[in-house]
Specification:
It contains 24 helices and twelve strands. The chain is of the alpha+beta class and 517 residues long. Among the domains are: 4-110, no CATH class; 143-174 and 303-358 and 391-517, no CATH class. It has a four-stranded mixed sheet. It has a three-stranded antiparallel sheet with strand order 3-11-10. A three-stranded mixed sheet has the order 4-5-12. A hairpin with a 6-residue loop joins β4 and β5. The protein is globular. It starts with a helix and ends in a 15-residue tail after the last strand. 39% of the residues are buried. Mean pLDDT is 86; it is low at 509-517. Bound molecules: 2-acetamido-2-deoxy-beta-D-glucopyranose (2 copies). Heme binds at residue 433. It comes from Lentithecium fluviatile CBS 122367.
Length: 517
């Protein structure tokens, strides 16, 4: 038997549910992009995103095959755009304000700066642009400063790979873990100079402890759910405060003192300015190691590709200087990579196409009609998931959702890489990631240094691609759910060689060829 209380409760739930349902549909205009069938009004999207991460959006696209659809969250409308034609129109429209949470709001939110600093930086950004992005553009987008930063990073990489990959070991190691460590040392060392706070293993460990908390900073009450991450963040804050107090930045890459001085002149206190390095760190460290991991995985797991990459890398060995007693010195100029190693670059491009999960975000400035038929309401957020484009069979053919190492060997494949309507791992137009050349240079160098010196074999005997269900929605590259245990051995054929890895002057123009925003 039901008690009265049960009945009242059931009635209450029915009324709330029905009310939400009616409200949802009555506030959804027929001219807006279609709303996929709803089970729990307003809560489907947050639950779906929590459960499936970026796959939530990809699965909806697969299931309903809509060029654009609406998601309703509490207090927020999202329009998710899938069709290339609509993306083209949106990129051409200037009245859709660009909303870049990853560079400003996102940075402010998770770096832990106080309200005052946040307000100041927001208003400064509104009048003079985001000083961080402006500086990264100035120093890392192209030209001699990009070469300087890359050169320092390559020097550090060569040394750290020798130690980490070359360490004689009996046991297996995790491939991602070892890459992550080397790349972190190289990138942060090149940017922060000899006093790099991350050279301290405790600060490096604190960064590792902080990263899993980022999702909580975005979606929940961090004080309750991310204590460990917040404590780790405080340790990093302290390390950077000390770094600036003792003048470590005077020996850093020019970008760091410039941003720091700008912040100080604007009245931001030293400890607050130090906190902002969290944003620089995240920009530098979030996706490079993961990309290098997937690239190495795809190369090493295909013997034919591996051999081809190594044959092309042999072309970079420009000088075989005098033989010392019993060893030969080989100088490898990594700045020739982009010119002489098309297989490796194509593998990187296919890796980015296949894996990248970057979501471009824009905010609708005022009510507008897209392509003459879709009403987009003011203040809604437009999401363009890169995966929807990269896995679109209409663009990439029936095999769009599989990794194909030959895909980009054709001129047709190469052509698709030239347009951000078919290939957009770094975003598009003015919000394209300004650090991508630096990060790509260093990542490719790491893979080259490793492939030339070492053989990597999966400990389990067979390469198996890990799943990525648990990857974070905020990250442009999804991390594998589990690392791959590998065994690393020096390549026998080159054991007697002394390698010297350099970044010469052959990088040519990395300048951006086109702007499509
Ligand atoms: C890789 O992609 C870039 C576009 O980001 C393109 O310019 C380049 O030609 C591609 N290279 C190869 C070998 O696929
Ligand atoms: C936008 O359109 C909606 C629905 O058509 C309307 O209720 C709202 O007032 C409009 N807002 C503006 C700012 O025009």
């Amino acid at each position: 038997m039901f008690s009265i209380l049960d009945l009242v409760f059931v009635a209450f739930v029915a009324v709330v549910y029905g009310g939400a349902y009616v409200f949802l549909y009555s506030t959804q205009s027929k001219r807006e992009p279609r709303l996929p069938p709803t089970v729990i009004p307003y809560l489907d999207p947050p639950i779906g995103i929590a459960k499936e991460k970026v796959n939530y959006l990809v699965n909806l696209r697969m299931k309903y095959k809509l060029p654009i659809f609406t998601l309703r969250m509490p207090f927020q409308r999202l329009y998710v755009v899938n069709a290339a034609e609509l993306i083209r129109i949106i990129q051409a429209k200037t009245n859709l304000g660009t909303f870049v949470p990853n560079l400003l709001d996102f940075g402010l939110l998770f770096s832990g700066v106080n309200k005052e600093t946040q307000e100041f930086l927001r208003s400064a950004a509104a009048t003079q642009g985001n000083s961080f992005t402006v500086s990264v553009h100035k120093f890392l987008a192209q030209g001699p400063t990009l070469q300087v930063a890359t050169r320092t990073a390559v020097d550090r990489l060569a040394a750290s790979v020798r130690n980490s990959f070359g360490l004689p070991r009996i046991n297996q190691v995790g491939l991602l873990e070892i890459i992550r460590h080397d790349l972190m040392r190289a990138l942060t060392g090149a940017i922060y100079g000899p006093e790099n706070p991350y050279d301290d293993p405790e600060v490096e460990a604190s960064w590792q402890a902080f990263v899993p908390g980022i999702t909580h900073l975005l979606y929940s009450v961090p004080r309750l759910t991310a204590r460990k991450a917040l404590r780790a963040r405080s340790r990093i804050h302290i390390a950077f405060t000390k770094y600036f107090e003792t003048g470590g930045h005077h020996q850093a890459f020019a970008m760091i003192p410039e941003i720091f001085e700008w912040n100080r002149r604007s009245g931001i206190s030293l400890p607050e300015a130090a906190k902002l390095e969290m944003a620089t760190s995240l920009a530098m460290l979030s996706s490079g190691a993961i990309t290098a991991f997937w690239l190495l995985f795809h190369i090493c797991s295909n013997p034919e590709v591996l051999e081809q990459c190594r044959a092309e890398l042999a072309e970079l060995v420009s000088t075989k200087t005098e033989s010392t007693a019993d060893a030969q010195v080989k100088v490898v100029d990594l700045s020739l990579l982009k010119k002489k190693c098309p297989t490796m670059i194509a593998m990187l491009n296919e890796t980015l196409r296949y894996h990248s999960t970057l979501i471009n975000i824009k905010k609708v400035d005022h009510n507008t009609t897209l392509a003459g038929q879709y009403l987009l309401k003011k203040d809604a957020i437009i999401m363009i998931p890169g995966t929807a484009v990269h896995h679109d069979p209409e663009i990439w053919g029936p095999s769009a959702t599989t990794f194909d190492h030959r895909r980009l060997a054709t001129s047709e494949g190469q052509k698709k890489l030239q347009s951000t309507l078919s290939f957009r791992p770094f975003g598009a137009g003015s919000t394209m990631c300004p650090g991508r050349h630096f990060s790509t240079n260093v990542m490719l160098s790491l893979v080259a240094i490793v492939l030339l010196q070492f053989d990597i074999k999966p400990a389990e005997g067979r390469w198996v691609m890990p799943t990525k269900w648990k990857a974070d929605l905020w990250n442009a590259m999804p991390k594998p759910d589990a690392d791959i245990p590998v065994r690393i051995n020096p390549r026998e054929s080159v054991q007697a060689v002394h390698w010297k890895f350099v970044w010469g002057d052959n990088a040519g123009q990395d300048a951006d060829a086109k702007q499509e925003d």
